[in-house]
């Protein structure tokens, strides 16, 4: 049996549990691997099996979560212990599909105790560099879904590095929301209208500044840069926000009303890019010397220039892929593709063991 402990039963977590239940028989036949949940955890409690949860128990928990309930409402729920106390003696795969902070140290402790980790949660990889190293050394943590959701970004990068290639430059569009905004601007929309449309359609976080600050992109950039071997502290990657500092602390309603105050800067940058024959993109650029996250002009023949809408695109220029870069492109968000990326990591971990 491969014991799984899953932290998080939100959109990604529930999709993952459904996918695991669906593929478990085929994985058992194909590889002789028996994927079994020993515990699932949400923000309010945990449910553990003895030795594992049955399929019926997992489906019941999913139904309760789907209906908006908490694990603490279930008979037998554990609410007085940290999840690290629920680990079995045998090796388990600990899957973090929360967006919680503060998990890096307990996950590193789990690895020290012989367990393995799979992440969709970026935050554990974005604390101090020592914790990143503790989590990732000897491949103890897989984290494909942290950058580009289900797209093969981390595995492509690791395979380039493992085969002795050298990264000359990684250029990437890693935010579907900011990609949507750039397409709207290109189609003639004002910045204010583009942000309000994205907000109305539910493409932004409840507070659109969470997208416009670039903070989530900066976390992905830090993960990519650290994977490249850069020993960067957490604060080394600073994203360029798409709004002025004086709008950082007003309410969401006021922010949406006062978007005009962010308009001029962005529209001037768009006009300058056009005048230079370039396009404007919100990108991550990683070279051996630097890591940048912000609005940049991109040449009209660059792969990033062809990007439309919310897709992600990651372009690797390396010593071997020099004349034309290796490009990974596709949907970089969505619960099903993200869960599939996590499931791929779980199966790879289980096969390795
Ligand atoms: N959605 C996407 O397209 C996508 C793509 C790539 C990566 N990701 C990453 O995947 C992760 C999950 O995303 P999501 O959309 O599923 O988020 P979500 O719907 O907000 O779900 C988060 C889950 O984590 C649980 N949780 C929060 N704090 C916890 C804690 N301290 N201990 C245990 N559980 C805790 C929540 O519990 P309650 O249910 O009790 O609230 C909830 O079940 C995030 O890190 C996100 O950045 C998402």
Task: Describe it.
- The chain has two domains: 2-150 and 335-352, NAD(P)-binding Rossmann-like Domain (Rossmann fold, 3-Layer(aba) Sandwich); 162-330, Dihydrodipicolinate Reductase, domain 2, CATH 3.30.360.
- It is built from twelve helices and eleven strands.
- The chain has helices at 11-31, 55-66, 104-112, 129-136, 154-162, 176-186, 191-200, 209-212, 215-227, 252-257, 260-275, 335-352; strands at 2-7, 35-41, 46-48, 93-96, 116-119, 141-142, 167-173, 278-286, 291-299, 312-318, 326-330.
- A six-stranded mixed sheet has the order 3-2-1-4-5-6, with helices on both faces. The protein has a five-stranded antiparallel sheet with strand order 9-8-7-10-11.
- A hairpin with a 4-residue loop joins strand 2 and strand 3 (46-48).
- Helix 1 packs antiparallel against helix 2 and helix 3 packs parallel to helix 4 (129-136).
- It is globular, with a radius of gyration of 21 Å.
- It binds NADP nicotinamide-adenine-dinucleotide phosphate.
- Residues 7-13, 41-44, 70, 97-100, 120-122, 145, 149, 333-335, 338 line the site of NADP nicotinamide-adenine-dinucleotide phosphate (NAP).
- NADP nicotinamide-adenine-dinucleotide phosphate binds at residues 7-13, 41-44, 70, 97-100, 120-122, 145, 149, 333-335, 338.
- InterPro entries: Bifunc_Aspkin/hSer_DH, HDH_cat, HDH_CS, HDH_short, NAD(P)-bd_dom_sf.
- It comes from Chloroflexus islandicus.
- Keywords: Amino-acid biosynthesis, Methionine biosynthesis, NADP, Oxidoreductase, Threonine biosynthesis.
- It catalyses: L-homoserine + NADP(+) = L-aspartate 4-semialdehyde + NADPH + H(+); L-homoserine + NAD(+) = L-aspartate 4-semialdehyde + NADH + H(+).
């Amino acid at each position: 049996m491969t014991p799984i402990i899953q932290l998080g039963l939100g959109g990604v977590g529930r999709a993952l549990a459904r996918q695991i239940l669906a593929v478990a028989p085929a994985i058992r036949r194909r590889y002789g691997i028996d994927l079994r949940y020993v515990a699932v955890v949400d923000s309010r409690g945990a449910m553990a099996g003895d030795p594992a949860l049955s399929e019926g128990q997992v489906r019941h928990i999913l139904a309760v979560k789907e209906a908006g309930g908490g694990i603490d409402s279930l008979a037998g729920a554990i609410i007085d212990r940290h999840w690290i106390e629920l680990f079995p003696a045998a090796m388990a795969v600990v899957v973090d599909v929360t967006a919680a902070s503060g998990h890096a140290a307990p996950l590193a402790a789990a690895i020290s105790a012989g367990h393995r980790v799979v992440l969709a949660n970026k935050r554990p990889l974005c604390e101090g560099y020592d914790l990143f190293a503790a989590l990732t050394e000897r491949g103890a943590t897989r984290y494909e879904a942290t950058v580009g959701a289900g797209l093969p970004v981390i595995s492509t990068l690791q395979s380039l590095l493992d085969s002795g290639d050298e990264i000359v430059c990684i250029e990437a569009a890693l935010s579907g929301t900011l990609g949507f905004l750039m397409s709207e601007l290109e189609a003639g929309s004002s910045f204010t209208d583009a942000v309000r449309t994205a907000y109305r359609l539910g493409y932004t976080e409840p507070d659109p500044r969470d997208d416009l600050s670039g903070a989530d992109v900066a976390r992905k950039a830090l993960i990519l840069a650290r994977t490249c071997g850069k020993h960067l502290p957490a604060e080394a990657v600073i994203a360029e926000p798409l709004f002025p500092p004086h709008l950082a602390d007003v309410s969401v309603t006021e922010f949406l009303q006062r978007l005009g105050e962010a308009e001029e800067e962005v529209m001037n940058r768009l006009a300058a890019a056009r005048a230079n024959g370039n396009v404007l993109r919100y990108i991550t650029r990683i070279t051996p010397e630097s890591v940048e996250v912000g609005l940049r002009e991109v040449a009209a023949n660059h792969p990033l220039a062809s990007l439309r809408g919310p897709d992600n695109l990651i372009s690797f220029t390396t010593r071997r892929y020099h004349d034309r870069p290796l490009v990974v492109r596709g949907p970089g968000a969505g619960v099903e593709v993200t869960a599939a990326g996590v499931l791929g990591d779980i199966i790879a971990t289980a096969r390795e063991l």
